[in-house]
């Protein structure tokens, strides 16, 4: 039986989150876009309503729900055109703590992640290192009961707001191959030697704080390491399937949003005395987009079901990540074109959506990296 996230308890949860969006996020989002950051109280309200890490067990403050509830949250945020980074926190970063943390680490950090008292980020990318994680230069040297971290990270989502950052470090710089010398170490807010760099000015996603992070003789307890020393690369690889699935869900939701309001615009807007949608070229373009979006949703939900069942679908998720994120950019291009000059004006949502989706086929692994992974999976 196909997964139906619009029935039963799923529908109740979806409707509740939609009400939360209407009350707390949608009316304020334009202001947050101008301010360049999401207020912390929004995270607390989301936590109070059970919308952060809903899959975390009750003993840590969560609801013990499945990943499918996270899919619903990600979909509705995207369909509303509001890129608040709840999915990054809940479904990309916090799972590292849940999967690799000790019982003490889980008890220390998970309740705050669920309540919104702790905002989490992951720091992998460096100024000279993007997709090639094995080439990172940030080091963590063991000194007694501490690690001393030195290095810099960039393009870190939630870098300004984050209370807890999972940092990919080299703990064995001489390892061969290099990826075998990488570890994941948790750095908490206000740790001496941990500084926030610039908040980066970006083409889109203006309200999502993206920044540089700097570590200068930053001392953290040795007990802050996640998993085994020098096993960080393996941890990262194990979590990329879900990360890329979340990104695909986000892209799919925005594509559906853009098509919906573009169809409405093309029905109402007239040119040469006729609705824009009545011209065959335009109607065919809309039909092509609708078909691609439907194909994307069908494929995506198949992968969500397989992921929920614990299957390894790295190849298929990589296919979804590159194809759906490229598709949403095609949809953005054609939807803006169908809006004509109004599409270039910020008073119409397509203007912002066009800018926002450009990052989708870059973050969490570029299209080119996805194709390389698929080629490897195919034995090429």
From TrEMBL:
InterPro entries: Acyl-CoA_dehydrogenase, Acyl-CoA_DH_CS, Acyl-CoA_Oxase/DH_mid-dom, Acyl-CoA_Oxase/DH_mid-dom_sf, AcylCo_DH-like_C, AcylCo_DH/oxidase_C, AcylCoA_DH/ox_N, AcylCoA_DH/ox_N_sf
Record Pfam families: Acyl-CoA_dh_1 (PF00441), Acyl-CoA_dh_M (PF02770), Acyl-CoA_dh_N (PF02771)
Cofactor(s) named in the record: FAD
BP-aspect Gene Ontology terms: fatty acid beta-oxidation using acyl-CoA dehydrogenase
GO CC, alphabetical: cytoplasm
Domain Acyl-CoA oxidase/dehydrogenase middle as annotated: residue spans: 121-218
SUPFAM superfamilies xrefs: Acyl-CoA dehydrogenase C-terminal domain-like, Acyl-CoA dehydrogenase NM domain-like
Keywords, comma-separated and alphabetical: FAD, Flavoprotein, Oxidoreductase
Annotated metabolic or biological route of this protein: Siderophore biosynthesis; mycobactin biosynthesis
Domain Acyl-CoA dehydrogenase/oxidase N-terminal: 11-117
Residue ranges of every copy of the Acyl-CoA dehydrogenase/oxidase C-terminal domain listed in the record: 230-378
GO MF annotation: an example: acyl-CoA dehydrogenase activity
Protein family membership: Belongs to the acyl-CoA dehydrogenase family.
Function according to Swiss-Prot or TrEMBL: Catalyzes the dehydrogenation at the alpha-beta position of ACP-bound acyl chains. This results in the introduction of a double bond in the lipidic chain, which is further transferred to the epsilon-amino group of lysine residue in the mycobactin core by MbtK.
PANTHER family: LONG-CHAIN SPECIFIC ACYL-COA DEHYDROGENASE, MITOCHONDRIAL, MEDIUM-CHAIN SPECIFIC ACYL-COA DEHYDROGENASE, MITOCHONDRIAL-RELATED
Name of this chain's protein: Acyl-[acyl-carrier-protein] dehydrogenase MbtN
Species of the source: Desulfotruncus arcticus DSM 17038
């Amino acid at each position: 039986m196909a997964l139906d996230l619009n029935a039963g308890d799923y529908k109740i949860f979806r409707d509740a989150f939609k009400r939360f969006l209407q009350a707390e996020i949608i009316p304020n989002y334009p202001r947050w876009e101008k301010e360049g950051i999401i207020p912390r109280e929004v995270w607390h309200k989301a936590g109070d309503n059970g919308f952060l890490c809903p899959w975390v067990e009750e003993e840590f403050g969560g609801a013990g729900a499945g990943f499918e509830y996270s899919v619903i949250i990600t979909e509705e945020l995207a369909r509303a055109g509001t890129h608040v980074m709840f999915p990054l926190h809940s479904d990309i970063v916090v799972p590292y703590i849940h999967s690799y943390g000790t019982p003490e680490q889980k008890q220390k950090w998970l309740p705050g992640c669920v309540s919104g008292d702790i905002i989490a980020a992951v720091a992998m990318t460096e100024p000279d290192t993007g997709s090639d994680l094995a080439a990172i230069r940030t080091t963590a040297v063991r000194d007694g009961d501490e690690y001393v971290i030195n290095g810099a990270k960039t393009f870190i989502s939630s870098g300004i707001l984050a209370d807890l950052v999972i940092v990919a470090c080299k703990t064995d710089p001489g390892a061969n191959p290099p990826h075998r010398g990488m570890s994941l170490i948790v750095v908490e807010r206000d740790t001496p030697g941990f500084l926030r760099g610039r908040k980066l000015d970006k083409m889109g996603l203006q309200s999502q704080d993206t920044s540089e992070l700097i570590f200068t003789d930053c001392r953290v307890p040795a007990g802050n390491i996640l998993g085994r020393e020098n096993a960080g690369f393996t941890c990262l690889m194990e979590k990329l399937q879900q990360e890329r699935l979340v990104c695909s869900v986000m892209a799919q939701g925005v594509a559906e949003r853009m098509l919906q309001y573009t169809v409405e615009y093309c029905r109402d807007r007239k040119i040469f005395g006729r609705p824009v949608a009545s011209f065959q070229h335009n109607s065919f373009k809309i039909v092509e987009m609708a078909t691609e979006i439907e194909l994307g949703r069908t494929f995506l939900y198949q992968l969500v079901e397989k992921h929920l069942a614990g299957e390894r679908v790295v190849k298929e998720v990589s296919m979804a990540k590159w194809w759906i994120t490229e598709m949403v950019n095609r949809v953005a291009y054609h939807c803006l074109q169908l809006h004509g000059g109004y599409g270039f004006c910020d008073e119409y949502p397509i203007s912002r959506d066009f800018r926002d989706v450009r990052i989708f086929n870059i973050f969490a692994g570029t299209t080119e990296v996805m194709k390389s992974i698929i080629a490897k999976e195919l034995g090429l």
